[in-house]
Amino acid sequence: xxxxVTKNAAIAINAFLIGIKLIKxxxxxxxIQLIQIxxxxxxxxxxxxxxxNPNPKAIEQAVEVLKxxxxxxxxxxxxxxxxxxxxxxxxxxxxxxxxxxxxxKANFSFVCSDLRHISDYxxxxxxTTFRVLKKALPGPFxxxxxxxxxxxxxxxxxxxxxxxxxxxxxxxxxxxxxLGNPIxxxxxxxxxxxxxxxxxxxxxxxxxxxxxxLVIDGGYGDNEPSTVVDCTSGxxxxxxxxxxxxxxxx
Length: 250
What we know:
Elements: H1 2-36, E1 45-48, H2 56-67, E2 72-74, E3 81-85, H3 89-99, E4 109-111, H4 115-118, H5 127-136, E5 141-146, H6 150-155, E6 161-165, H7 170-179, E7 183-187, H8 201-208, E8 214-217, E9 227-230, E10 237-240
Parallel strand pairs: 1-8, 2-8, 4-6, 5-9
Antiparallel strand pairs: 2-3, 3-7, 4-7, 5-6, 9-10
């Protein structure tokens, strides 16, 4: 009887030791994998930020994700946007894969915190155009402007124009301000035949949690996109009617 108990105890101890070794092996492998991706762990988070008074810690969290090559979904003054740091080529390629498009054929917007960012990516504009932009932004507009040589380098394309956004949303602008450069962005579309754009951040998170790194819940989004205005010819041509009313600023 004693021999049987001792034998069973030995088997149990041996199994326990094997388990410990296995855990160590798995842990070591996981650590190696974390090192390989430079300490960036994809968390698929959903965080709440109030647009009236954005929490600085939450904003910093979003910026950290972007700086490490992550992709976020965030609120604007119109529809929710899918965005990344415009200086991160791999992140841009990830967004293109999510949208099923090639970088050279993509029509992304550059989301800026204010007009100061714009001059880094566009050719000089005339006084009239500048005055309209200054009055209309921040606001629900995307202004198409002639791009300078920095844009093709970022998008690996021959694009000669760029869409500029300065949304009237403190969450979006604070993220860009703290990041230090614009967010490359595209709108979140809905599969619904009636509703064109996804508006519920929790449903957006359910749909995209395996493809993006962070979803910001800034409340329900709008179902009306920005008004797109082509300024490349020196005139103002509305090429997509949206939330913004251009005549109010001309």
